[in-house]
Amino acid sequence: MKIDRASILKNIIHPAMALGLTMSAFAGGNGPVITTGPIERSPDIKLLPRPDLVPLGFTSTRKEQYDTQWHRAYSATVTVANFGTAKSEHFACIFGFKVLATNDPVKYPVGSKGLCGFVTFTEGLDVTEIRDESSTVSFSIPKSVSKIEIYLLVDRYLWGTDDDWENDSGAELTCNIAESNELNNVWGPKVYSFIPLPNTPPVVSW
Q1: Which of 43, 77, 94, 119 is the most exposed place for a label (fewest CB within 10 A)?
Q2: In Å, how far are 50, 89, 116, 180 from 44, measured between CA atoms?
Q3: 101 touches 146 (CB < 8 A)
């Protein structure tokens, strides 16, 4: 007996259409997929609730007792706000530097950049919350530089592909917290000048 496959297929599809269903087949052997109406599109990521972590500044205190042979130690209190629409998870504030004057043009040439410490927010931040966090030794400055800029970076990697935090992109820019705005996470700089005179304390200028 000859089988009319077109007739069978018509009898299968027709009742489905009568129920207001749509049928679409995808290549690759997965077979037909029946859905009950239009396919929902993924919402725009900008419309999802996201935190927006913004650094508001930091203060620092010299900690000579924690100095090493090559670095000056500082304690810092950093201030960060969450201006987004969702609470953030824990994150870190990283300190970046840019050399303005140096006594070691080989290791720390003028214009060179790097990362030099961090402070963590272990509890994250609620929506609209502004909070301070500090640590005993937050960042260090090489003794071989005589003038340096220090920047505060929110939610960046301390160990990235390189030491230039200004060229961060992709995962290094986003880091651990997916924010509604990833381009407002840098504050600064503060300029630290070290006058090479005996018994003269370092000068910090704003």
Answers
A1: 43
A2: 12, 22, 37, 11
A3: yes
> Going by C-beta distance under 8 Å and a sequence separation of 6 or more, which residues neighbour residue 184?
52, 54
Q: What is the mean pLDDT of residues 105-113?
A: 94
Given a cut of 70, whether residue 33 has pLDDT beyond it is no
Of 53, 147, 60, 45, the residue nearest 95 (C-alpha): 60
Contact 98, 111 (CB under 8 A): yes
The C-alpha angle 100, 106, 110, rounded to 5 degrees, equals 15
Single-letter code of the amino acid located at 131 = R
**What number of other Cβ atoms are within 10 A of residue 136's Cβ?**
11
In this structure, which long-range contacts are made by residues 201-205, counting pairs with CB atoms below 8 Å and at least 24 apart in sequence? 202/62, 202/72, 204/60
Predicted TM-score of the model (pTM): 0.72
**Residue range 6-30: average pLDDT?**
43
Query: Using an 8 Å Cβ cutoff, are 113 and 69 in contact?
Result: no
Q: How confident is the model at residue 7 (pLDDT cuts 50, 70, 90)?
A: low
Measured CA to CA, the distance from residue 30 to residue 187 in angstroms comes to 52
